[in-house]
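Protocol step 6 of 9: fold each sequence in the batch and record its structure tokens directly after the sequence line. For illustration, a two-sequence batch is reproduced in full.

Sequence one:
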Amino acid sequence: MDIKGPKIKKYMEEFIVSPGREVKLRKFKTGWAINDALKTLDDNKARAMAAEILNKDRNRLAKAQELLYADKSYSLLIVLQGMDTAGKDGAIRHVMSGVNPQGCSVSGFKVPTSTEHAHDFLWRYSNCLPQRGMIGIFNRSHYEDVLAVKVHPERMEMLPAKLGKPESDTFWDWRYSDIRNFEKHLVRNGTVILKFFLHISKKEQKKRLMDRLNNKEKYWKISPFDVAERAFWNDYEKAYEEMLAATSTEYAPWFVIPADFKWAARTFVAEVIVNAIEGLNLKYPEVTEEQVNKLLEAKKKLLNEK
């Protein structure tokens, strides 16, 4: 069975990680201005133009989501990954603000509970998958188990020793294979998967962390742990490169989104989502002649009410 990924516009292919390709994140831009017109504008004008584009995409997304919900043939899974402060929460809030909440769910994955650790690493993610007609968003995802866990092996769930140890390359190859097969199974059963790595520079992350530390009203958004994790920046970058190379496929590709400009990243994410849904060629359910007659009768009764 030939399974293919989402249909998107040609210019978006610049940001896709080609299957089997070696990934060096330094070769991907962290700053991006959507198009040449925005590059020539000052920041305020660029923001305004990007906001206009995003608003149009939100309107298209609202219509596309309604059709997805009505058709109920496919589900859409959006995966958001990125370093701390990369803009995952903001992307959800701004891009999905026009979507009907009934047709959308957001799942955030923190440190696994003891119950979750007692199952295979994909178990807790399987329980949160969107049903047909729905959009599901993973704010962090099953990829944490080949990212944070790889950088910090002490967070690994308890496994029989004979199944291998995190120190071996074979162990991670197995995990990548499990993820690819998990996603292939979902795609074969009607789930469209869009995976976004929000690519932020270390310099921009420092700026965003300092913005939070300089504003007491934002203290709730930060912890000393966030700053301490910067010491592992190179380890995370290496883990991301290996993960992107091993798990970007034709049926579930990774998009590396330049995220230093929040407004630009949000616009691009919205564009990809809208194009993917519109590319499914969905239709509203057909109403039979019998149903039409019943509806007309109901209308007649309603009009004749006193």
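Sequence two, same batch, same settings:
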Amino acid sequence: MRKFLIIFIAILMAAVRGFAQVEGDVMDVSNKFIPNAIVIATDTVTKKMDTVHTDERGFYFFKNLKPGIHKFEAKATGFLPTVKFFKVNPAPEGANDSDDTYFAETLDIILKRPKSPK
């Protein structure tokens, strides 16, 4: 039982330290922010998906991603969906989002409107 408890605590500690954060803006080609866009982050190994919406300024934030390669897909009404692959690094030890040790990587995403038929 003691061995199980030690292993469980070690796994829990590794999981707590192994988080990553990504933030960014979703904009159009003229750098106008797109509110209420959907951004989906998919871990390319585990296939776990996390979804957020941009705020009124086009800003999004993923708080607890697993470090590694993620596929980011952004979509919004009136725009073509965009996919980007991005390597998410673990946050430095001691980093969090509640004080001056805040840490997040930045990935801005630009969406294009579909071409009008001629």
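Proceed to step 7 once all outputs are recorded. Observation for sequence two: Strands lie at 20-28, 38-43, 49-53, 59-65, 68-75, 82-88, 105-106, 109-111.
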